[in-house]
Amino acid sequence: MAQVTIKINGYAYNVGCQDGEEAHLFAMAEQIEERVTRAKALGSQSGEAKLLVMAALFMADELHDLRLEAKGAARGKTPAAVKTAEERTKKLAARAEAIAGTLEQH
After folding, report:
1. Residue 28 and residue 34: Cα distance in Å, rounded?
2. For residues 37 and 59, is the Cβ–Cβ distance under 8 A?
3. pLDDT values of the chain reduced to their tens digit, one per residue, 106 residues
4. Quick check: 67 and 78 in contact, CB under 8 A?
5. Rounded CA gap, 97 and 67, in Å?
6. Phi and psi for 103 in degrees, rounded to 5?
7. Which residues are within 8 A (CB) of 46 and not within 5 positions of it... i.e. 6 or more apart?
8. Is 0.85 surpassed by the pTM of this model?
9. Quick one: DSSP state of residue 83?
10. Is the N end or the C end of the chain the one with fewer CB atoms within 10 Å?
């Protein structure tokens, strides 16, 4: 089993993976880092844990949308008009801010 060190938001994490999967693990860490950066741009800088939660929520939202699109495609339906990257980012930001607001209340 391989051991790699990934960096997310300036912090190093030692993570194990199968031999040969190191590049994939680095690519996943880059995806997380991109979403952490997006969360920071929204002003969600109240702690490492919250940034990681926000990044996870971004990714979960994207995965949810992809699953819905895949189900529609499997049924032979034409996907709805493709949203522009800006529209999608605004939608994700609004959802994340709404979720962050509820987290701050607890």
Report:
1. 10
2. no
3. 999 999 999 999 999 999 999 999 999 999 999 999 988 888 856 788 888 888 999 999 999 888 888 877 777 655 554 445 557 767 777 777 666 665 555 4
4. no
5. 23
6. -65, -40
7. 104
8. no
9. P
10. C
